[in-house]
Amino acid sequence: MKNLKFTFLTVVSLFVTTQTFAQQTKAIRVSPFTFLKGQPVMIHYENNVFKSFTMGVGVAPIMWGPIVGSLLYPPTKFNTGIAIDPEVRWYAKNDKVMDGFFVGLYNSNRFSSWEGASSEEIFNLSSELNDWDIKNRKIIVGLQLGVQRLIGDHFCVDFYSGIGFNSNVTTATRKFDKYTETRPSGGVNLRLNVALGWQF
Predict the structure, then answer these.
(1) Distances from the Cα of 179 to the Cαs of 120, 171, 184, in angstroms?
(2) CA–CA separation, 73 vs 77, rounded Å?
(3) CA proximity to 89, closest of 53, 59, 57, 50
């Protein structure tokens, strides 16, 4: 519930801030297919800042752990966290901003934490499993392209894809003696999703 409140307040704050500096086209969209990343839904806000250039951000609560971190340290208590995804877009059409083909840059920041056990202890059939506090940080930077289509005066459908590089760090602290393990990883990240929204 705290994450949902934080997500709502973040979107409202961004909306109020951009209203102060610009009166151009804006959009609020929802991506309903982010559950594979542990996010029940992501809310996007986009604002036209100059001609065909827009800036936006997506925010979402993280309700369960990332795949890699959860395999290393299987959760025993529900995972919580937040995802914040800023982006910049350039639309090819100059007559209608935020309608048509676009290219841009995106950044994804995911922070999550949970309580769990160590997979090494489980696989080694240890007689006593220790409790761990786990934190995960994943940062992605990449290029994106897609199409946003305005249907009617306000309703819009946004298809976006991209490729980037990610840095993923899982840090686990054993509760009883504060021993800490850090597991870094990284690689190529692919992006593909759709969002439904409202332009105003």
Answers:
(1) 15, 11, 17
(2) 11
(3) 53
Answer yes or no: are the C-beta atoms of 85 and 104 closer than 8 Å: no
Nearest-5° Cα angle at 76, 72 to 79: 80
Residue pair 91/97 in contact (Cβ under 8 Å)? The answer is yes
- β-pairing, 75-91 vs 180-199, is unpaired
| pLDDT per position as a tens digit, 56-101 | 999 999 987 776 667 788 888 877 899 999 999 999 987 667 999 9
**C-alpha 60, offset from chain centre:** 6
Domain limits, the chain: 2-199
pTM surpassing 0.85? no
CATH number, domain 2-199, options 2.40.160, 2.60.40, 2.60.120, 3.40.630: 2.40.160
Q: Are 91 and 99 in contact (CB under 8 A)?
A: yes
SS3 (DSSP) at 91: strand
